[in-house]
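Step 1: inspect the first sequence and its tokens.
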Amino acid sequence: MNAPENLRPSLPALAPLTPHPEPGVAPRINLGQSADWSPGFASLYDDPEEPFIRPCDPSPLQDCRFLAVSEDAAALLGLDAQELMQSSDWLALLSGNAVASHLQPYASVYAGHQFGVFVPRLGDGRALNLGALRGWELQLKGAGQTPYARFADGRAVLRSSIREYLCSEAMHALGIPTTRALSLAAASSPV
């Protein structure tokens, strides 16, 4: 049952979305059989008036290189970690310099409490969902500005990225269910 109009809490106006790279501007690359890939969560119902996801390409970085690739996480995806580390296409995808040719990355929106206050529109401010490979969702953190970046640059500093990578691997090794980190990349671009 809906509360009477005069008893409903008033929500603050939503802040404007942050400018971000338009869909389709990143180079497209072919990374295997398109049958192995799917849009993942992007295939969920979406309300055109208040979209749950917004298409967005990553912002490119300069002089990217892999710092680490998890053999266990690569195996979950049916990939060989050594081959992945040698692949310029995979480096381009996992550093945000290219997008898989048959998918469109997107940022998700959600609501929740932040710093003790309800915020009606939070979202992936520095993360993009790349799609799903063999049923596993791939997400790129530090992808640059998304529509939900709230005026930040959308990047991730190396020290916190190393911490997240090592913690996810350590938790997995201890048998604690967790997200997995496929790779860690660095670039010369300033953050």
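Step 2: inspect the second sequence and its tokens, then contrast the two.
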Amino acid sequence: MALMTATGNGDRRLTRRLAQLFTGLVLYGVSMAFMVESGLGLNPWDVFHQGLSKATGISFGWVVILLGVPILLLWIPLRQKPGIGTIANLFVVGFAVDGALAVLPAGHGIPARIGYLVGGILLNGLATGLYIGSNFGPGPRDGLMTGIVGRFPKLSIRLVRTAIELTVLGVGFLLGGTVGIGTVAYALAIGPLVHLFLPLCTVAPAREPKLTSVD
């Protein structure tokens, strides 16, 4: 009976984690669309995505998906192993952002644009807490950062993240991506928001049930 109960609890926990993962990834894509519609600036990776989209004519979401493939290939020399969340992140976020951009009304006027920006940043913080808290593995871009730090332990996470994000920000800006007050606001707000939401959203994987002999 105890073993059956433990198994049932584990199944429910897995179901919650999967639901949380996909909810978080969809909301992450929607949050990206909010910030695009604001026109007030994007986070560094999305500046890069938008710049590539403008340069190639490929939709924003498909750029997110296609760029994830070579980034994942960089995981191989870094000895990173993708999880379910990594593969889901690769596709779900891209489809979600394109879907949201197709239905969201344009932000006319400063109040509407600020609303999109603030809503996008808040939603991004929640979405990050949800998908990371599901414990199914990091997204391709986050895994690149942690993989570099793992292979070169003398480098700090702060240094590696800053170097990567400044690089993609600069290239994205040169390609026509939007840099503005939203870029700064995101940089200042996302850390505290994830710090707030992640503990609330973290679901630990179920423990393996222990079998005990009964005399």
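Step 3: confirm your contrast with the notes below.
Residues 211-215 have pLDDT under 50 and may be disordered. The chain has one domain: 16-201.
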